[in-house]
Structure formats: C-alpha cells, structure tokens
Write a structure and sequence with these properties.
The structure holds two protein chains of two kinds.
Chain A: E1 3-12, E2 15-16, H1 18-25, E3 34-40, E4 43-49, H2 71-87, E5 97-103, H3 108-121, H4 128-133, H5 138-147, E6 153-156, H6 162-176, E7 181-188, H7 192-203, E8 224-231, E9 241-249, E10 264-267, H8 276-279, E11 288-290, H9 293-296, H10 302-316, E12 318-319, E13 332-333, E14 338-339, E15 345-351, E16 355-362
Parallel strand pairs in A: 5-6, 5-7, 10-11, 10-15, 11-13
Antiparallel strand pairs in A: 1-2, 1-8, 1-9, 3-4, 7-8, 9-16, 12-14, 15-16
Chain B: E1 6-15, H1 21-29, H2 72-87, H3 92-97, E2 100-105, H4 115-122, H5 130-136, H6 140-148, E3 154-157, H7 163-176, E4 182-189, H8 193-201, E5 225-233, H9 234-240, E6 246-255, H10 268-281, E7 288-292, H11 299-312, E8 319-320, H12 323-326, H13 333-347, E9 349-350, E10 372-373, E11 378-385, E12 389-396
Parallel strand pairs in B: 2-3, 2-4, 7-8, 7-11
Antiparallel strand pairs in B: 1-5, 1-6, 4-5, 6-12, 9-10, 11-12
Helix pairs in contact in B: 7-13
The chains are: A alpha/beta, B alpha/beta.
Chain lengths: 364, 400
C-alpha cells in the first residue's frame, strides 16, 4: 500500500484549514476551550469543550444551498472543500472519486434535536428535516450533493475503530481500481448530552487534557472534521504517503519491531480512562513519542486528526514537541522540534478496549 | 485488478417471516407473513402504521455465551451470524485460527436513541448513564467481533437503507485484497420508535400492508431483522471442502448527488450502480434471471427503481420485492435481501411479491404475482438509500 496524501482540510477548535494544524504543531496557535457548566448527579462541573470554529464555508457554497444544513454537516462540507483546494485538484470525472466518512458517535445534535421535536410537539409533530439530518450518512451525502460527486459514498461508525477502517476502505477501493481519488474524512460534534456523559463518566473536575496520564480521566470533548484527499500510488503527494494500516484485537500483540521501524509515534490517547490503559500494552521501547489530542480535544476519531498532523510533519520535514507530558520515564517524548528525513515513517497509534490500530505515514 | 472470486458459503437470517433461512423461505414461497400493529412500540397517533416485527425477546435464541447486556439489534445480528457460520461449517475453533472480518450495516444499531434518558435529562433529573453504556457496548460489528473472537477487519456501515448491501460489497473487497480470509457481512436493525416516527413524519409510511410496485401503493412498512452471509475466496472454500452457494460476482455503488431524501428522478445513480455491478461480474443484463428489487412500496422509490429495472433488463425477468414479507428493515435490508437472492438462486424459485395487484402505468413493471420457477445462473439485488446512495450486488451460481 502506498497511498499519497494530496490535500488536507481541517475544521476544529484550532480553526479551519491545514495551516491551523501547522500553526498549532509549531506552537504558534492554540485552541481556547469554552467552559460549559454541566449539572450531574454529583453536582455542577465546569467542563472545557473544544468547540470547532467553522468559518468561511460561503467561499465555497452559496448560502442558499446551506439553508437546511446543520452545523456538523457544515464542518464536514468545509473540511472537504478545503482538502480539495489544498490539493489544487480539479476532478474531471466525478464518478471516479469516492467518499469514505467516519464518525464515532454520529450526528448527536440532530439525533437529540429529533427527540426534541417529539417531546415538544408530540408523536405527530416529529420533524422530517431533522430526522433526515440525524441519519449517520447525511454528512457524506450532503458532501456528495454539494461536490456533485457521483462516485462511491460510504459512512462507517465504530467509535475508536472508525478511522482505521475508513483508511482501509479507501485503500481497498484504490487497490481495486474502482476510484482514482478518495476523500476520507472523520469527525464528531459536541452535544450537551456528550458533555453530560463526559462530566459524569470521565472528567469530573479535570480542567485540562493530560492524554499521556494514561490511567487518568481528562476527557475534554472536542469536535471537528478532518478530511484527507488520497490518490493512487502514481499520484505525487504533498504530504507523504500512507504506507500501511494495521488493526488488531486489543488482546493481540503487534509484530515485534514493527513500532520500532518508525522514527516517531503519535499516540491518539485522548484522556479517556477506558482506552488510555490500552496504550500501555504497546511496546514503545526505543521510539520517541508525541500525543497531540490536547491541541484539538477528545474524540473517538482522534486517530484521523493525528494522521493529518503526521502528514503535516511529512510536508514540513519536522516532528514537533509533544504538548502532552508523561509521568515517570516510561515514554521518551519529543520535547523539541527535530527533523524528519525523507523515507522516515511516523506511526499513528490508537488503542481501545476493542482494538489496536496503526497507520504508518512516510515522508517521501 | 484481477483477483480470485469471492464466494458465499453461508447464509443466516431472521425477520418477521421466520427465525432461519429455511423458515423464512418457506414462509415467503407460500405467501405468508403480514404486518401488524406494533407491539413493542407505543405511540400516540390517531393512525396505526403496521410493522413486520420479530416475535419474542430473542434472549436465549443464540448459542454464544454472552456476559453483557445486548440490544435487540445485536441479538438479531448474532442469531443470523450464528446460522451463517453453521451453514458455512465454521465453528469457534476455526474462527479463532483464521483472519475473519465482520462488516455489518445498521441504522438503529449505531444511533444513540435513548428517549427516556433524554426526557429525564431535559427535565434535569440527572439520569444514570445506563443507556449510554448500552450504546457504547453494542456497536454491531464491534460487539459481534468480540463475542465471536474475530481477528480481522471490523466495520459498522451506516449508509442508511443501503448499509447491508454496501457492507457485503465492502467485505467482498476485503476478501479480494487479502485483508482477511473470511468475512461475515450483512446488516441488522431492530424496530425503534424513533425511526418509526421519523418515517411517518416523512409521509412515506403506509397505514396498510405495503404493496411494492402496485399502482395503489401507499408507502412502506418498517420491519426488523438481520441477514448475514459468509464470504471467502474460492480457494478457501475448496480447501475447507464446503459448498460454494454463489459467487459475489459484482458490486456497484454510486451516489445520486441529487437530494438528501429523494432518489434522482431518472435513477441515474442506480443505473450506474447496476452497470458497475454487471461490468464487474462480466455478465450481460440478459444473463440475469432474477431481480430482488429494493421495492419499498413508497411512490417515489418504486417509480424510479421500477423504471430503471424495466429499461435496463429485458421484459420477463422475474422481479420480486421481498420487503412485502419483511417490511423495510433499514440497515438489515441489503443483508436480508442478499440472503434471499442467493437462496432463490439455489432453489431456482422466485417468490411472489405479496399484495401486488395492479401495474402502475407510470412504471410499466409487473413484479411476480406467484412463486415462479426459473432456470438461471445469476441474480441481482438492488438497494437505494437516503442521501442518494445506490448499490447493486450480482450473485452468480456459474454455468454448472
């Protein structure tokens, strides 16, 4: 597998576009989580939330076309257009572009917005518009409509396992030759129910993310959407190539030396005490590590954002310091900027109680 | 890309028409199974919209030991998966030795529909997170992979009503690109109050038993169930000395890029999907001898789909809409209909489309009105979805 990354579109608490990711990696910008007061059975908590800043969509889509498009979908649409713009691509055959989107939780606001219409207006007052938006594939279909893309279009959803299967799907389609390009994208949105569950389950009084305190809860919800435009192996890529995708059961061990064949490891730990301890089972001896979730916030699709950050590192030829600190000396962290040479590889690693996934990105 | 063919070696299904493939096929060949007023869904509406509901709680129907709370969707999927695995001669010990992937389509199974919890939260009653935990533990593909001890790719497809077909198409790709040795694929969904009210709000639910392709059709009836197939390479089936039920000869999928809930008026996405599936199969339309249509019974779907089928295939090919026996099972539909299509090919019989009486002149298509015998090698199953996704699967028994 050698899949070039042609363009990146990102919408997150860091702002919009690949430059927002570059600036955050280089320490020139940071997200400002918005504090929400969440009332739980244990009392009221301040929960910082990494709310996405999705601005500038009207540069790509007439406002009229966005009348019934909800906020989460706007993130996905904007990320898609930004990825295409970043790639400088003009797609002539709209049937040869696939869309593979993934989401950990789906369109939660529309889901509960539909509940609201039933509760407020009765069983006969349910809103058909919001019902349509509450279907998981509404984002991908809206993007296909707005991009006029008639290729394959699929949405995957399996919490933390989502991103790696999104990449695998794109790889399979490209290998089968049924598409020339694939727009992959993953994201999630914040909803008050997610805040309530996060405050009740995880964070309690955490005010900042410490993703490398692996057994510690510091899940501060993030939201956003990140798209990577992928091409066939013959297409020159700006951001390196995806060389390998590995997904194992949580109980399985990765091949000895596999992780060590990489120059850097980006851990997609995101402050979730359920998945955090699973990272401790990965052999990280002899490799340097970074975790960036505190830049963009906690999401089950964190691996997708880390893949985008790895791609940025491939473009700039730099690995950036890990904003997350580790306790003790078990992890060898990137504490300063170091070069990433051509041919060197970054392993983006995600773990959960269900799975262990690695996406290898190589600087070309 | 040339690769070894993917074959179906196991079938499993559960729906209102029965709790096994044999029971379901017997029921639909004899024209049985009608929708009824919902029993597990309580609504406050003046009109009753009938559904195809599976009887019973389903607890204890499956063999796999379960030490967690399963949703009804997970139970449906597990029952169908177990039947398919038995059919394919795969027991737990074999599963653990091979790279077995699982790809399941769903809509309800991946959605946090927790109405009581949400009402309590809105009323500031600070509810417990039981429903959230249940949701987190019941992603269909993840929960089955865990229960069955599978070690291959795990994907839950949320492509609305084409989810099941797309899951089979994607799993076919896994097998052909050596992502796994064997794949379980299909779809699963339980009846739920939320989509029940959603489809009523869209004005596409019928207050009477659905009548796909009939001139006087009024809309769809929701249903629930699961349909799962076992896929593997031909060489794997031969090595295991199991029967190849059919080849998954072709898969096509194309977006309309037209409207969030309505199909393209000329069905252009469906035409492309069928065309891709036929091209991949190497078969011509006149070599297809059985069409299992999406056939929901809604005015719009059947008009668009019926016209496409009429124009792409020669007259006289039996077309059946098995949703007239199962209801629209949403994420399960493509899986169930793939199972029925393969079994119909094996039986060389096509069931009647229940309650079809009068042809719609706007469509010009008459689906089967009685169970008919066929002599054919290949069949096609189509799916259309919210968001404008269209998918088609071609199954081929081969010349022998």
């Amino acid at each position: 597998m050698n899949i070039p990354i042609l363009g990146i579109g990102s919408v997150s608490a860091l702002g919009c576009g690949v430059d927002s990711l570059s600036a955050a990696l280089a320490g020139r910008a940071s997200a400002r989580p918005d504090s929400k007061v969440i009332t739980t059975a244990l009392g009221d908590f301040d929960l910082p939330v990494y709310e996405a800043v999705a601005e500038g969509l009207d540069r790509f889509v007439p406002k009229r076309a966005l009348r019934r498009v909800d906020r989460f979908t706007r993130m996905a649409v904007l990320a898609s257009f930004l990825a295409i713009k970043d790639a400088g691509l003009s797609v002539e055959d709209s049937q040869r572009v696939g869309i593979v989107f993934g989401t950990g939780f789906g369109p939660l606001c529309a889901c509960f917005g539909f509940h609201d219409t039933i509760i407020d207006d009765g069983d006969g007052g349910a809103s058909p518009t919001i019902f349509a938006q509450s279907v998981h594939n509404s984002l991908a279909s809206d993007v296909s409509i707005l991009l006029k893309n008639q290729g394959r279009c699929v949405t995957l959803t399996s919490f933390e396992s989502t991103t790696v299967e999104v990449v695998r799907t794109a790889a399979v389609w490209l290998e089968q030759g049924v598409v020339d390009y694939v727009m992959i994208g993953v994201g999630d949105e914040y909803s008050p129910i997610l805040g309530y569950a996060s405050a009740t389950l995880n964070t309690k009084s955490a005010t900042k993310m410490d993703p490398l305190q692996l057994d510690h809860c510091s899940y501060l919800p993030g939201e956003g959407f990140v798209c990577l435009l992928l091409g066939k192996d013959s297409t020159p890529g700006t951001y390196g190539v995806i060389e390998q995708v590995v997904a194992e059961r949580a109980s399985d061990r990765l091949d000895p030396g596999f992780i060590q064949s990489h120059s850097a490891v980006f851990l997609s730990a995101h402050g979730d005490s359920r998945s955090g301890p699973c990272f401790e089972k990965v052999d990280l001896s002899g490799v340097k590590v970074a975790a960036y979730a505190s830049l963009y916030g906690a999401m089950p699709v964190a691996l997708g954002f880390d893949m985008a950050l790895a791609a940025v590192s491939c473009r700039t030829g730099r690995i950036y310091p890990s904003p997350a600190k580790a306790s003790g000396d078990r992890l060898d962290l990137f504490t300063e900027e170091v070069p990433l040479e051509r041919g060197e590889r970054i392993a983006c690693v995600d773990c959960s109680p269900h799975h262990k996934a690695v996406v290898s990105v190589v600087r070309t | 890309m040339k690769s070894e063919k993917t074959v179906v070696t196991g079938l499993g299904a559960i729906c209102a028409a029965g709790v096994s493939v044999k029971e379901i096929m017997s029921s639909i060949y004899s024209g049985g199974c009608r929708p009824q007023a919902p029993r597990r869904i309580q609504v406050d509406l003046e009109t009753t919209y009938p559904v195809f509901e599976v009887e019973g709680s389903l607890e204890g129907v499956h063999e796999t030991q379960v030490d967690q709370e399963l949703t009804r969707t997970s139970r449906l999927a597990l029952i169908a998966a177990e039947e398919a695995l038995h059919h394919a001669g795969l027991d737990h010990s074999v599963l653990r030795e091979l790279r077995v992937g699982i790809c399941l389509g769903t809509t309800v199974g991946c959605t946090l529909n927790a109405e009581t919890f949400y009402r309590q939260w809105r009323a500031n009653e600070r509810p417990g997170l039981g429903p959230v935990h249940r949701y987190l533990q019941n992603n269909p593909a993840l929960v089955l992979a865990n229960l069955l001890g599978l070690s291959g790719p795990v994907a839950t497809i949320a492509n609305a009503c084409s989810s099941g077909s797309d899951a089979i198409g994607l799993a076919k790709g896994w097998v052909e690109t050596d992502q796994c040795d064997i794949a379980l694929a299909g779809g699963c969904d339980e009846l739920s109050r939320i989509p029940y009210l959603g489809f009523i709000s869209l004005l596409i639910s019928a207050s009477e038993p659905c009548r796909p392709f009939d001139k006087n059709r009024k809309g769809l009836n929701l249903g629930e169930g699961a349909g799962v197939v076992v896929l593997e390479r031909e060489s794997s089936a031969k090595a295991r000395q199991v029967m190849e039920l059919a080849r998954v000869a072709g898969y096509g999928s194309s977006a309309d890029a037209f409207h969030p809930t309505a199909p393209h008026p000329e069905g252009l996405g469906l035409v492309r999907a069928i065309g891709q599936a036929l091209e991949e199969s190497g078969l011509f339309p006149d070599q297809i001898g059985l069409i299992n249509a999406h056939g929901t019974g809604t005015p719009e779907n059947d008009r668009v789909e019926g016209r496409v089928v009429r124009e792409m295939f020669a007259g006289g090919i039996p077309v059946v809409a098995t949703k007239s026996y199962t209801g629209h099972t949403l994420g399960a539909a493509g899986g169930l209909e793939a199972v029925f299509t393969v079994q119909a090919l094996l039986d060389q019989r096509v069931p009647a489309t229940a309650r079809f009486v009068e042809s719609d002149p706007e469509i010009g298509l008459c689906p089967t009105q009685e169970t008919v015998t066929v002599d054919t090698r290949a069949a096609i199953s189509t799916s259309l979805a919210f968001g404008g996704n269209n998918s088609a699967l071609v199954f081929d028994r081969g010349l022998s």
